[in-house]
Amino acid sequence: MEQSAQGALDDWLSPVAIPAAEEGDFLRLYPTGARPRPGAILTSAMARHHPWHWHDLHQISCAFRGALLVESAQGRHLVPPRLAAWIPAGTRHRLRLARVPSVTVFLPTSAVAQAPAGVRLFPLTPLLAELLREAARWPLGRPLDRLGRNLFATLAGLCAEQLGVERPLLLPPVRDPRLLRALELAAAQPHATAAELCSRAGLSTRTFHRRLAAEAGISWREYRLRLRLLKAVSLLEESPWPVGRIAEACGFASPSAFAQAFRARLGFSPGRYRRLTATAAGSATSAKVWRSRAR
Q: pTM of the full predicted structure?
């Protein structure tokens, strides 16, 4: 795996700082006085870092390969291919992309009734993935014809259904400096025990477990599992390593334990995920075709 990719992975798996409630500017996505309408933005395979912002449209973002990172006050979500991020209107957030061909669709709030609050990750069905690709034919700001209106209406309805099938790959934010230090060490040393982490961070194991539950809202066991799965997702994409080596590198006791945990959270085995990602990467090479359609 390239050094730059590993550096980005280490950065993304580090504990999350909580943004200030007022941080981020309002980003207007349509002319003043105009009626908001659906549209899409297609990005090419290049690194992008968006500042904190918010807007009054719902947002759905997915990557065709690589790593898409969504940060909000909830914490840090790593969005692998085969999953999409739902970012409801009014949510302060920022996106970071590393060599990511991706598509983002914006929907007016009226398009999704009773939209859930907060950033969510949900699985992409084959139909949803194809509709998101086709949405690039109508870039944000372009008038919609009847076909475009029907496509975005169908897309909104299918996404609303999938939002009930959430895949939690979130690292929640924490504040305590010593707890942050322990979690930084956990990201860098996946085989370390809680006692070893606490000894190096300067806090007792009892305090560590209590503060993690209070600040992050999850147990150490759950946090460690998410940390390992997030690292595994990136390694399955970025490295040529066999599944067994990835399982060991991420701290799992065995390849079978890794496969069981991965399947329970993402819905398929590590090997199948890697094959699906490779298929998505092939589809991403069609980005120039989508752009030509959108002109």
A: 0.74
